[in-house]
Design a protein that fits this description.
- By secondary structure, the protein is an alpha+beta fold.
- It has helices at residues 8-21, 28-60, 91-124, 129-144, 147-159, 190-220, 227-245, 269-296, 299-307, 312-342, 354-365, 368-397; strands at residues 168-171, 174-177, 180-183, 185-186, 251-252, 255-257, 260-262, 265-267.
- A hairpin with a 2-residue loop joins strand 1 and strand 2 (174-177).
Length: 402
């Protein structure tokens, strides 16, 4: 029989809890709390010193501080802008144009780099020796060259293209010259906005139907056919909106008038070189990530799918890639962030993004601290938004154990 008295274990636990709350340097919890308070205090003191020192230096040099300059007339010409802009507008609107130009590069670059990187990554796994070797050479060469050097090379090559009158015309309506890439475009009207909204609502409805059908199948094991409803929502709602609003679908074709093209969409050499360089560079890294993700799926998954008689394309899209996404998404998120931050190299080839416009603003106003703070805030906001979305998507595709 045990000699322990009733209540001994309880009293021992209370004694240990009391020692854990004891204010003593020998107590690890108290020691850790003291070090944390000291670390926070040192950081706060350092920040306070920086703020006070900056304020004193600005006052001694009679440099005004604050963001009041954003309401002043900019007098800054901007060649490319998604919204209306004139040099008589304020610095705030000029910086907004720069933010939209940065987003224009980042969003298009992420989409194109993802598609190209996925294709190249799968090509490296191809049984075709030539295709696999060419993909490997592309990845190794592009990844080993500095991005800035690639941007300067692409911009120089675009500047060396023939003038508009001798422009390259690889496809009907598409022209490539030293003025950039000219493409046909849809003549946009206000009615098209309602059609786009209907398309988004239809896509949301189709997604909801798919989730509902999956949930019901998991509950009772009976599959539901939802594709007719989803197709009706995605195509029917925009078609109905187009009929009700009378939206026209005329294409604006570029035409050579004088010394340049008129009509269509003109991607300037600066924007086209920046976008092409970012896509080619980032796609090389994404290709290796995709290849590693596919190789991480065990060979038994391929063999089991082949035993069921599935085709290689179906195996890759329905069996392998959904499992590989759990490995692919985290590093691809880092590449998306890198692409967004690398777009700041636009200043080297003359594309006016947020960095370029903010630098010009700093030179004109002398508001260096505020200008740099605006650049940091813009990139921080974009990066956090990308991270939040990709983390949400990563949780959706994560393997859930039952």
């Amino acid at each position: 029989m045990s000699d322990a008295k009733p209540g001994t274990h309880g009293s021992r636990a209370r004694d240990e809890a009391a020692r854990g709350r004891r204010i003593s340097w020998s107590n690890p919890a108290f020691r850790g709390l003291v070090w944390q308070v000291l670390a926070v205090g040192l950081v706060a003191a350092g920040l306070a010193w920086l703020v006070v020192n900056t304020h004193e230096n600005l006052e001694s040099r009679r440099i005004a501080s604050g963001f009041g300059f954003l309401g002043n007339e900019a007098g800054l010409p901007i060649g490319e802008h998604l919204i209306s802009y004139a040099p008589t507008d304020t610095y705030l609107r000029a910086l907004l144009v720069g933010v939209l130009n940065t987003l224009r590069v980042a969003v298009a670059g992420i989409v194109l780099a993802t598609v190209l990187g996925t294709l190249i990554g799968l090509a490296r796994l191809s049984r075709n020796w030539l295709l696999s070797r060419l993909s490997a050479v592309y990845v190794e060469v592009v990844r080993d060259l500095p991005l800035l050097l690639q941007l300067l090379l692409l911009y120089t090559l675009l500047q060396g293209l023939p003038p508009p009158r001798q422009a390259l015309n690889p496809i009907a309506g598409v022209y490539l010259s030293n003025r950039g890439l000219i493409l046909p475009a849809l003549e946009w009207h206000a009615a098209h906005g309602w059609v786009l909204l209907a398309l988004l609502l239809g896509a949301a409805g189709a997604f909801t139907c798919g989730r509902w059908a999956t949930a019901r199948q998991m509950a009772d094991g009976r599959p539901r056919i939802v594709w007719p409803f989803a197709l009706g929502l995605v195509l029917g709602l925009p078609a109905l909106a187009a009929i009700l609003t009378g939206a026209s679908w005329s294409i604006e074709w570029p035409e050579l008038k004088g010394f340049n093209f008129r009509g269509g969409v003109n991607l300037s050499p600066e924007y086209f070189a920046l976008l092409l360089g970012l896509v080619l560079y980032t796609a090389a890294f994404i290709a290796e990530i995709v290849r590693a993700g596919v190789l991480s799926v065990r060979r038994g998954q391929w063999e089991a799918a082949q035993a069921l008689g599935l085709r290689p394309r179906v195996i890759l899209s329905r069996v392998v890639l959904p499992q590989a996404l759990r490995v692919i998404i985290p590093p691809v998120t880092s590449q998306y962030l890198n692409l967004t931050k690398n777009s700041s190299l636009a200043v080297a080839i003359g594309f006016q993004d947020i960095v370029s416009i903010a630098n010009t603003t700093i030179n004109q106003t002398g508001q260096a601290v505020e200008g740099i703070a605006i650049i940091m805030a813009v990139y921080l906001t974009i990066s956090l938004s990308i991270s939040l979305f990709m983390n949400w998507y990563n949780r959706r595709v994560a393997l859930v154990e039952r």
